[in-house]
Amino acid sequence: MEPGAAELYDQALLGILQHVGNVQDFLRVLFGFLYRKTDFYRLLRHPSDRMGFPPGAAQALVLQVFKTFDHMARQDDEKRRKELEEKFGRKEEEEAVAAAVVAAEQEPAPAPAQEVEIDSAVDSAGPQGPPGLRSVVQEVAQGSREAEPPGADAGAAQVPREPTALP
Which stretches of sequence are listed as region Disordered (predicted)? Predict the structure, then answer.
């Protein structure tokens, strides 16, 4: 039978399969048809018999057809497995390349020029900060004390002063 010719019967066979509901019952319908309407199960006992098969021939025929399609199914499975391996292999490779591109595009974070410890405690000299910043804060604090009227210093001693906010 030609490969394309089998597809002519697909609709009829699908209809039977859907009607009976499972493969086992479908095979019963198929072999029942062969039993009732053909000489598939008839044995040739005498050379003069005109219908039937020699003993074991029908079974060998079924087994041969089964093995043919079983072999095709194993080849299909192997082909699908290889395609999936290639697909996932390519996908993993593409992901690795994409990750490398992203990593290359990202600039590394610059190293700090100088580490500075910040202490929030205020001592008698004023707020603490980096050496260059400390002198600026002290100048601002001294300038504000000079601008205060005499005697304002006494009130300032009672109310704790908050450090000047830096930009």
Answer: 98-167
Examine residue 94 and state whether it is found in any structural domain, yes or no.
Answer: yes
In whole angstroms, what is the distance from residue 57 CA to residue 51 CA?
A: 13
**Whole-number Å distance between alpha carbons of 138 and 127:** 8
Q: Smallest Cα–Cα separation from 124: which of 159, 161, 75? A: 161
Q: Is residue 140 part of a domain?
A: no
Q: Could you please report the per-residue DSSP string of 98-152?
A: HHHHHHHHSPPPPPPS--------EETTEE---HHHHHHHHHHHHHHHHHSPTTH
Residue 47 located in a structural domain: no
Q: How many domains does the chain have?
A: 1
Helix/strand/coil for 53: strand
- Rg of the chain's alpha carbons, rounded to an integer? 47
SS3 43: strand
The domain of 91 spans 55-106
pLDDT digits (tens, 9 = 90+) for 131-142: 555 554 455 455
Residue 10 belongs to some domain of the structure: no
d(CA 13, CA 131): 91
